[in-house]
Amino acid sequence: YAKKLPELPAGAEGWFAIMTPPTDAEKYCGAVQLLHEKIKASRPFYNYREGQIDKAHLRVHPRTVQMMKVLAEQQPGGIFIIAAQLGLRHRGRSTRRVREIFVQNEYGLGSVAGCSIALTHPERFVRYEELDMDLPGDEFDHPAGDAPVVRAPCLYYFDGWVRFGAKRVGRPDRLYGSASGFVPQ
């Protein structure tokens, strides 16, 4: 597939290799944990959601599930080559708003995709001044009293460390942009 890439879809900044996200919720969470360990082995990494990367807290957004099925039909195997943008297109918008305005072939990148990119692109997440990445392809339930607060995972750099956390989906932040992928049409 990588030898015959189609034209880069409008809105994408480039092609990225990511681990094929497992479709099973438990295996998906295991893949995120594995990627966290690999990042931690390569540079300073902190997971603010340590012990919460499980199917009770983390799930893939339905739109991303749908687009991953399309990609799986096009690219069998353990690695996807995806067209993506890493946040500039949706800079300063809330994750909720971004999910509402995706173009037809666009979907949010999840934790597996974001962590795969952080692992394979060590030039990302090296300066405080760079754009941090919301991951609207996943939802994260943060326990808060009786009802969970839905958040979206994020990756960012601070004080020499790559950090994984989760932010409220309704809160825009000019320092973050939602990363998204595009299925070639």
How is this fold's topology laid out?
Elements: E1 14-19, H1 25-42, E2 45-47, E3 58-60, H2 62-74, E4 79-85, H3 95-101, E5 106-108, H4 111-120, E6 132-134, E7 138-142, E8 149-158, E9 161-168, E10 176-178, E11 180-182
Helix pairs in contact: 1-4
Question: What brief labels describe this structure?
Answer:
185 residues, alpha+beta, seven-stranded mixed beta sheet, four-stranded antiparallel beta sheet, 4 helices, 29% strand, globular
Structural class, by secondary structure, is alpha+beta
Topology order in helix (H) and strand (E) letters: EHEEHEHEHEEEEEE
Residue ranges: pLDDT <50 for 5 or more in a row?
none
Strand content: 25-35%
DSSP E strands, number = 11
Distance from N terminus to C terminus (CA atoms, Å) equals 15 Å
Shape: globular
Helix content: 25-40%
Mean pLDDT over the residues = 94
The Rg value, from CA coordinates, equals 15 Å
Oligomeric assembly: single chain
**Biggest sheet layout:** 7 strands, mixed
